[in-house]
Design brief:
It is a single chain. By secondary structure, the protein is an alpha+beta fold. The chain is globular. It has three helices and seven strands, in the order βββββαββαα. It has helices spanning about 55-75, 115-135, 155-175, and strands spanning about 5, 10, 15-20, 25, 35-40, 80, 100-105. The longest helix is centred in the middle third of the chain and has 21 residues, at about 55-75.
Length: about 180
């Protein structure tokens, strides 16, 4: 059995849908757009410069592999890829991570002002530690809401696990890397 996955000190194994020996991907507690996921190195380090060359190589390869899948799965035309490398850059969880957000020319909440996604990401990062502490397990199904929705609450563990299971299926069909999933 695989060891539990930690995002800093937060156990996120049930939210994971992609895994290699050095990195993994999880669905987001409070996605800004549908398909907003995080790609994270296994070893909890706060900065990119703290990663070894093999860890960084795995992380970037995972960003590429996961990005390709989430863009297609969510009908995206492109991806916004962001890394807030350190507290002064807006990082709220002291563990390197990349945000991958599928984007659309039409129908994307931010399609009329594409760069508005960055302040939304910064607001989302600020609340992340509190939202993880308050994570709820519930079987009540709520409509999918994103950060642009003013009344949006953090998703339940069950909601995230359901999305992770769905995304995992894309990798078992396509992934030829025996290290992944």
């Amino acid at each position: 059995m695989s060891s539990p996955l930690l995002f800093s000190t937060i156990e996120v194994t049930r939210q994971a849908f992609y895994r290699t020996s050095l990195s993994y991907a999880i669905v987001n507690l409070k996605p800004i757009v549908p398909g907003h996921v995080l790609v994270i190195p296994n070893r909890p380090v706060p900065r990119l410069t703290d990663l070894t060359t093999p860890e960084l190589t795995s992380l970037i390869a995972s960003v590429q592999n996961v990005g390709r899948v989430v863009e297609r799965a969510y009908g995206g035309d492109a991806l916004t890829v962001a890394c807030q490398d350190g507290k002064a850059a807006g990082q709220s969880i002291p563990h390197v991570h990349f945000h991958l957000m599928p984007r659309k020319y039409h129908g994307d909440y931010f399609s009329h002002r594409m760069d508005d996604i960055y302040p939304a990401l910064e607001r989302s990062e600020t609340d992340l530690p509190r939202d993880f502490r308050n994570l709820k397990v519930s079987s009540v199904n709520h409509p999918f809401k994103v950060d642009a929705d003013e009344d949006r609450l953090p998703r339940t563990l069950e909601d995230m696990e359901q999305e992770a299971t769905w995304l995992r299926g894309f990798f078992t069909e396509e992934c030829h890397d025996t290290d992944a999933v």
